[in-house]
Amino acid sequence: MHEDTIAALATPFGEGAIAVVRVSGPGAVGLGGRVLRAARPVQDWQPRQAVRATVVTADGAGVDDVLATWFPAPASYTGEHVLEISGHGGVLVAQRVLAAVLAAGARPAEPGEFTQRAFLNGKLELTQAEAVMDLIQARSSLALAAAKQQLDGALGRETMDLRASLIEVTAQLEAYIDFPEEDIDPDTGASLTARIRAVLDRVGQLLATADRGRILREGLSTAIIGAPNVGKSSLLNYLCGEDRAIVSERPGTTRDTVETFINLRGVPLRLIDTAGLRESTDDIERLGMERSRAALAAADLVLWVVDGSRPAAEAGAAPGHADHTNRLLVIHKSDLPRHDDWSGSDGVPVSSLRRTGVEQLAERVRQLALGSGAGIGSQLPAINARHQACLGRARSALTAAVEAMEQGIEPEFVAADLRAAMTAIGEVTGRIDADEVLGEIFGRFCIGK
Ligand code: GDP
Question: Cβ(247) to ligand 1 under 6 A?
Fold first, then answer.
């Protein structure tokens, strides 16, 4: 438990209906007694029930009429005594409430400090604390669903299960270490190897969700590529629903790349509008084209836009390699009569002018880039870069353990690899406890043998 009491504005800075000042720490009750004037003192309030009160300064001047709620430890977000003061949502009044609370003995909280305390007090695992951030930052329904699932503890439970399996295997190996004259019999050896391999497979599956996690958190990076005047900027504006990029009738005016985050029917896209890919003598435009190529190379998805009313020759060569699996052809200007060259094409017809085609485009993007079944909408966890680093280390250690088992190397070495894997997996949730492993081992194998 921390000794100091922290306070901060829990709602965004600015004008709003209410502003919430949150206070957490052992001094929250005493502090409440000093800044809140109510019918009864804070310690007599019903926990988790809003009480009408007046915030007062040290010299007794009223600051704001508020509703305050008292969450006694440990049944609070941080696990400490927490006081939440909901006042009027003005910039000045909220600041004055916070100032009164700080003057009464609280210290300003650091960013994330409430959630950090929740983690340190065992209210949340690290994966859940991270999910709180993901939940706040989610900009699409799929990202929100993934964050919610992680907050519910799905990833934490999964990694705990994996560790539990490894603890059991290690415990059995330790028995052979204690009695070196006994060789591991082949059946036991094979079954232990199979169990390590099962954990390794599952770690591999979790690692495979890293891309999905990145896409959910950052958006699918999408390059809009096509010859000048096919309507790339207009398409970008249509997809964004507002005039973000400059639209012009003169070829080659979109000289820079514009990056915009959009929510395409639940799929998060990071759109990069790029200058048309064509030969140019204009230096500035050439710079734009170089960026286009770089964007194309790095993109998760390429939308190749062509003018469906014009001959295919004008569209130029398809961008990227022929095997660029994430390339989607957009037959643009579908409000105009279609040119014969595009009659058999399976590209998606879109008209930015008439604002038609976005539904079909969204569906195709979802299928192409995110797959179906085990794809982005599934209930798999979506790991982040930190989880990826931990699980990557676990995979190396587990691979070494499997090899050592197969080569019949002494159990000490296998156990060391398994311990390294357990530590790495434990880091995902932030629960690394050597005593826990030892307790488990000695609890089971309490050498009565
Ligand atoms: P970019 O050079 O590829 O970015 O193309 P722009 O977005 O600047 O558009 C080029 C021209 O095509 C402009 O005159 C637009 O008004 C026109 N345009 C864009 N989208 C459509 C569409 O869906 N239908 C029709 N008929 N014209 C369009």
Answer: yes
> pTM of this prediction?
0.67
Domain 218-370 architecture: 3-Layer(aba) Sandwich (3.40)
Q: Where are the beta strands (DSSP E) in 309-356?
A: 327-332, 348-350
Instruction: Give the Å distance between the CA of 248 and the centre of ligand 1.
Output: 8
Distance 229 CA to ligand 1 centre (A): 6
Please give the distance, rounded to the nearest whole angstrom, from the Cα atom of residue 358 to the centre of ligand 1. 16
CATH topology for 151-209+383-445 is Four Helix Bundle (Hemerythrin (Met), subunit A) (1.20.120)
Two tokens, residue 379: 């209930």
Which residue has its alpha carbon closest to ligand 1 atom 5? 231
CATH number of 6-120, picked from 3.40.800.20, 3.30.1360.120, 3.30.2000.10, 2.60.40.10: 3.30.1360.120
Closest residue by Cα to residue 292 from 282, 307, 302, 281: 302
The CA 266 to ligand 1 mean position distance, Å, reads 26
pLDDT by 10s per residue, the chain, length 449: 678 999 999 888 778 889 999 999 999 999 999 999 999 999 899 999 999 999 999 999 999 999 999 999 999 999 999 999 999 988 889 999 999 999 999 999 888 889 888 888 988 888 888 888 888 777 777 778 888 888 888 888 899 999 999 999 998 888 777 776 677 777 888 999 999 999 999 999 999 888 778 877 778 888 888 888 999 888 988 887 755 554 544 555 444 555 677 878 777 888 775 554 444 445 555 555 666 666 677 788 888 999 999 999 888 776 655 445 678 999 999 999 999 999 988 899 999 999 999 989 988 888 776 654 444 445 567 888 888 989 999 999 999 999 999 998 888 899 999 999 999 998 888 765 555 544 444 444 333 32
- 333 touches ligand 1 (CB under 6 Å): yes
CA atoms within 13 A on the CB side of 377: 12
